[in-house]
Amino acid sequence: VQLQASGGGSVQPGGSLTLSCAPSGRTLDKVNMGWFRRAPGKDREFVASVSSTGRGTYYADSVKGRFLIVRDNAKSAIDLQMDSLKPEDTGTYYCAVIKEWPHIASGSWGQGTLVTVSS
């Protein structure tokens, strides 16, 4: 499955953005999904994940209380609502299938979307 992340942009600290992930080639309603990010000069890291039913979620400590992962199986979309953004949230964000709950990705990465948080 090809995964396309969208919705990135530039925002000031304290601002909000919503990212969206959509697949091509198949639906996502039977798999656990997650968001990851890669900051400049750093390794890719886990951000958040949601179970196939949408009832289970898991967050990295750095984003708890600020980010919300939501899935809409009718639309086959996974959204990441990001509030109270900080400069350290800057990076390229990717969605991925979660191979091992809650934060091990399958290793297949689609095109990411860039988020820049700066004043």
Structure overview:
The chain is mainly beta and 119 residues long. Helix content is 0%, strand content 51%. The protein contains no helices and 11 strands. The strands form 2 sheets. Strands 2, 4, 5, 6, 9, 10 and 11 form a 7-stranded mixed β-sheet that branches. The chain has a 4-stranded antiparallel β-sheet with strand order 1-3-8-7, with no helix packed on it. Strand 4 and strand 5 form a beta hairpin. It is globular. The N and C termini lie far apart (37 Å). 32% of the residues are buried.
Which features would summarize this protein structure in a list?
119 residues, mainly beta, seven-stranded mixed beta sheet, four-stranded antiparallel beta sheet
Content-based structural category: mainly beta
Task: Please describe the biggest sheet, giving its number of strands, its sense, and whether it closes into a barrel.
Answer: 7 strands, mixed
What coarse outline follows from CA principal-axis ratios? globular
- The ordered H/E elements are EEEEEEEEEEE
Mean pLDDT: 92
Q: Stretches where pLDDT falls below 50 for ≥5 residues? A: none
Radius of gyration: 13 Å
Distance between the termini: 37 Å
What is the strand content?
Answer: over 45%
Number of helices: 0
Helix proportion: under 10%
